[in-house]
Amino acid sequence: MRLGIFxxxxxxxxxxxxxxxxxxxxxxxxxxxxxxxxxxQPLKPAGPRASGAHRLSMLELATxxxxxxxxxxxxxxxxxxxxxxxxxxxxxxxxxxxxLFFLMGADSLADLPGxxxxxDICALATPLVVRRAGSSPLDFDxxxxxxxxxRVGAIQQTVIEMPPTxxxxxxxxxxxxxxxxxxxxxxxxxxxxxxxxxxxETED
Length: 204
Prior knowledge:
By secondary structure, the protein is of the alpha/beta class. It is 41% helix and 16% strand. The chain starts with a strand and ends in a 7-residue tail after the last helix.
């Protein structure tokens, strides 16, 4: 079992998230990708806007037609600050048969040494780094202090290529607040859910 772990606020999940997961699944031959919504992220102290229950429900709707995409409540069930190393340790304990991969973009790669116990993260899961077309070359120097040189080379060989996708959850929330056009940026079922529950209509 090759299992990709995709963490984030998913506030809300959008088409860019799904494209990233699809690129990783196909290019890295992953059997499953688990979307893991955070309870509270240490690098985002303001916290997510929508509740954990809403964000998980939107993920379930967004991934309903892809059997290899799984919405995992592991961080929401645990509560508190969502440290990646703790999440990976729990998944590893529950799925010792699985080889874990941690999906991340270029920004996360640069910030990784400042995360909680980054060396342990790399010991539990192989970073699967995504490069968007047209972006700057990836800098793997942050990994050199965390893993051996040979492993850095192996990670460089598994870089995921992804088309440019200028979509962000914060942009979607702003568009909703300002009564802009946003529905095309998320799956139809997610747009219906947001409108039904009147999510993100105010800035508070």
